[in-house]
Amino acid sequence: MTQQTDVKQLLANCLTDTEFPELPGFTRNKVRDTYKLPGGRRLLISTDRQSAFDQILTATPNKGQVLTQTARYWFDATADICPNQVISYPDPNVVLVKDLDMLPIEIVVRAYLTGSTNTSVWPMYERGERVIYGHEFADGYSKNQKLPEAIITPTTKPDGGGHDAPITAAEILETGLLTADQWADISKKSLALFARGQKLAAEKGLILVDTKYEFGVDENGVIVIADEIHTPDSSRFWIADVYQERVDAGLEPESLDKEFLRLWVVGQCDPYNDPIPEIPDETVLEFSNKYIALFETVTGLTFDRPDPAISVKDRIRAALVKEFPEYF
Predict the structure, then answer these.
(1) Which residues neighbour 53 within 8 Å (Cβ) at sequence distance 6 or greater?
(2) How far apart are CA 241 and CA 206, in angstroms?
(3) Is 35 exposed, middle or buried (0-12, 13-18, 19+ CB in 10 A)?
(4) DSSP code, position 242
(5) Contact 168, 133 (CB under 8 A)
(6) 178: number of CA atoms within 13 Å, CB side?
(7) Which of 42, 137, 167, 259 has the greatest number of beta carbons closer than 10 A?
(8) What is the phi/psi pair of residue 27, to 5°?
(9) What tens-digit pLDDT sequence spans the chain (328 residues)?
């Protein structure tokens, strides 16, 4: 088999959808397919769909497995700070979780002035804004500069797949999206989770630049971390030992996260106003390798690359048949 054939086979085996009709409560989100099960449980299946700029752009080999297994590491590493919703892992792409009453706010913690999306702090700062998410910024900052301290920049979570929108802490409380106690709880937990993430990342030669957290309330009224944590989809990670050198040279930091793809897109077009061109296979594969590199660097484990000759969807089905025979 030629290398070109290997590449084609790898790309062809991406998991772009599940839609197992035997399972109840199907919902398709940007990246994850979910199934609501009886007993207050939900299946989260991470696909290889690649989203950016509120669009599905392509499918990235092994991405769903990387997301699930990276989050697994971080959920275990932060369980003493904040409980999570995890019950079990029936398959490398699948996690069975407690179904939660999700809070209508996403928390983004940022330690650097960076980003390329409409909700990122740097584009707002570059446009001349100096009060961003309720935080006051002085003049004179440059892109990718470290902030004096980590800040919380929340966004709304619109129904129906709309755009996230910046919101301040004061607006969250004024509109009743969260109670004062809920806001205090998730703010404290978010900063503690981020500090743990920074510490463990630094030990592996990485900078945890920023990250997104989602929280929900469980059956006992406890606020728990949900969805994912410190994955390359929800976070920015930079290579620490070349960060300053590259910034001083006017280059983007070397990253192991979704920013690589965002910057490629921004280099081709205005993603909010222009059609996004098809992403070349070699760029998709480089992106996949960055995700795998992040997993291996963070966890210290070797990524278990699936056999591209075996359908990921068929493998997941077999695992679910074994775990939930009552549905199949």
Answers:
(1) 117, 262, 265, 271, 272, 276
(2) 8
(3) buried
(4) G
(5) yes
(6) 29
(7) 259
(8) -135, 135
(9) 334 447 788 899 999 999 899 999 999 999 999 999 999 999 999 999 999 888 899 999 999 999 999 999 999 999 999 999 999 999 999 999 999 999 999 999 999 999 988 889 999 999 999 999 999 999 999 999 999 999 999 999 876 556 789 999 999 999 999 999 999 999 999 999 999 999 999 999 999 999 999 999 999 999 999 999 999 999 999 999 999 999 999 999 999 999 889 989 999 999 989 999 999 999 999 999 999 999 999 999 999 999 988 999 999 999 999 999 999 9
At 167, list the tokens. Answer: 């919101």
List of domains in the chain: 3-327 (3.30.470.20)
Q: How many residues does the chain have?
A: 328
Q: Kindly state the tokens that stand for 265.
A: 């897109």
Q: CB-based contacts of 217: which residues, under 8 Å, 6+ apart?
A: 100, 101, 103, 223, 224
Here the tokens at position 113 are: 């002035």
Q: What residue type is assigned to position 156 of the chain?
A: T
Q: Which residues contact 266 (CB under 8 A, 6 or more apart)?
A: 116
Task: Provide the token pair at 149.
Answer: 């301290």
